[in-house]
């Protein structure tokens, strides 16, 4: 993941960070205030709605109970029972029907909430079709909407429905009651109550409320505003199990979850339910959140301006320093930096000035060294004439020895030429181990010619090891030390050279069977190293620091063992 502070401008990062922080704090504040206030408003709304529903329920219960009492009293009237029994002659039956019709009409006129009264019997009397009191055949009751409710009950309230009158259709609630006389079923008395009267009680002082009147079975009798079906409620909803309560509906589309408050009154046959849209409850919270957002946007704008001013004040000296670094020219005119800063920027400016002075001094020193190096290269090119002269001289001596029949001298001159070429190696400090072994083999062969058959040597190295690199002229000083000091005053000797690789390092071993390392007190000429060996140690220390080993010690039986360990190198080092 890329660190933005390493890629983008600092002023942009300042603005983004401060704006992001304020935005996050603003979002948390808005959400917290909205959640807390909406919850508090919902609690308060549900509390007052429950109290209001209780008052409305008490009023409706009193009104509807009075209708039930009137229906009960009427159904037990002796004239009505005699009329429904049909035991009178036709004249008396007609006369009694008129009296009952007048009594029921008087009841309808005296109670304005009653729209009409219907009486269902076996032998109805045909009355005035424009009257509020109608007699019907008992079989005709089966087609009425309230009739299924009487199958298992003696009385029941119907749902809101339309009643056909001579003035048109009127919305009513019907209370139907079966009429009995000595357990004999005589007919049905139906009192139609004006639905607008009950709806007016449900509405109260709020014309935009959503309230419903349910019976104890959860059946909707009448609603104001939203009905149960539209609100997503089902009849006989098990959630209405307590006297009163509050619940949230989660069945509405688009995430709308209205608040439902219901209330039952003790010893009442009805339950009132009010549904309030959540938007209406939280409208105050939304306004508060809007006010907070407005204030937050203002704060965000102020923070943007403040951050912009601060970032410019902080970036101004940095920009000066950056321009000075970009336009820096060694030996040219340098950019002027402000000198009135005494804080961290002043320290940076002072450090940049000191760095410029140091660079100027180093540049002058490098220029001087470059001039010296150029002179040294010229001298080195001139010195290259001497090796070429030496090569040519050795070649001429070799041909002279061949002409004189001096084969040994010719071979020695040839081996010296090979050693000389490997030793120079075009000025390189590292050569392959194969070239190093060839160099020391040439030296040993020259010594063999001098010793004739008295000197033996053996070289062991795999081809993989021979391809690795080693500082040149490493082995020859140790081999020369073995011949000069180890085989001193002797006519024979043996030298073994072994190169191997182990654990990512190269081990070179030189073993001879000479006189060994004699104590210094004996005056022996053999020591642990003269100039050549000291030169090898110094060069290894310069190339490898402490990552090498050179050991010279007596062998377990006779002679000396030289061990050289250094890192594995697959290419020449510079």
Automatic annotation (TrEMBL):
SUPFAM superfamilies: ATPase domain of HSP90 chaperone/DNA topoisomerase II/histidine kinase (SSF55874). InterPro entries: Bact_2-comp_sensor_kinase, HAMP_dom, HATPase_C_sf, HATPase_dom, Sig_transdc_His_kin_internal. GO terms for molecular function: kinase activity. The chain crosses the membrane at residues 12-34, 288-310. Signal peptide: none annotated. It is a multi-pass membrane protein. Residues 312-364 form the HAMP domain. Its main location: membrane. It is found in: Cell membrane. It comes from the Bacteria. The keyword Ligase does not apply. Keywords: Cell membrane, Kinase, Membrane, Phosphoprotein, Transferase, Transmembrane, Transmembrane helix. Gene3D superfamilies: 6.10.340.10, Histidine kinase-like ATPase, C-terminal domain (3.30.565.10). The keyword Secreted does not apply. This is Sensor histidine kinase.
